[in-house]
Amino acid sequence: MRKSIQTNAHALVGKALASGRLRREPCSVCGTTERVLAHHEDYSKPLDVVWHCPTHHGQRHAEIGGSLAEGVDIRITLPAQFHRELRKSAIDADKTLIQHVNSILTEYITHEKETKGERHA
């Protein structure tokens, strides 16, 4: 299976960083050196990157109307309190979704019963 041009560009940046051919630079917007990311304006030029912190990388994608690297696995480490809050939010969202689905199904079943009753009347 052929890699996408985007996946290939990301892999080439990783290899270039590992070999020393490319060096991570400060964020081009705010100057931070923490967690800077390589941003491609043109994936056909894989080593032509602009360095951005996560905030400015996201802003750049919003400016150009693109999503952040579709299909890329982004992992962050959160303090325990945020894990609890995130887990609770996910559980609350699941409960809300289940309630919504149940409501739609109940409405559908009621509609079907009424429709069948009208057909048989």
Describe the model.
A two-stranded antiparallel ribbon has the order 1-2. With 121 residues, it is mainly α. 9% of the residues are buried. The protein contains three helices and two strands; from the N terminus they run αββαα. The chain folds into two domains: 5-64, no CATH class; 77-121. It starts with a helix and ends with a helix.
Topology overview:
Layout: H1 5-19, E1 37-40, E2 49-52, H2 54-64, H3 80-120
Describe what is shown at a glance.
This protein has 121 residues and is mainly α. The protein has helices spanning 5-19, 54-64, 80-120, and strands at residues 37-40, 49-52.
DSSP strand count: 2
Strand order of the largest sheet: 1-2
Order of helices and strands: HEEHH
* Arithmetic mean pLDDT: 80
Radius of gyration: 24 Å
The structural class is: mainly alpha
Percentage of β-strand residues: 5-15%
Instruction: Report the span from N to C terminus.
Output: 60 Å
Characterize the biggest β-sheet. Answer: 2 strands, antiparallel
Note the total helix count: 3
Low-confidence stretches: 69-73
Total individual domains: 2
Helix content: 55-70%
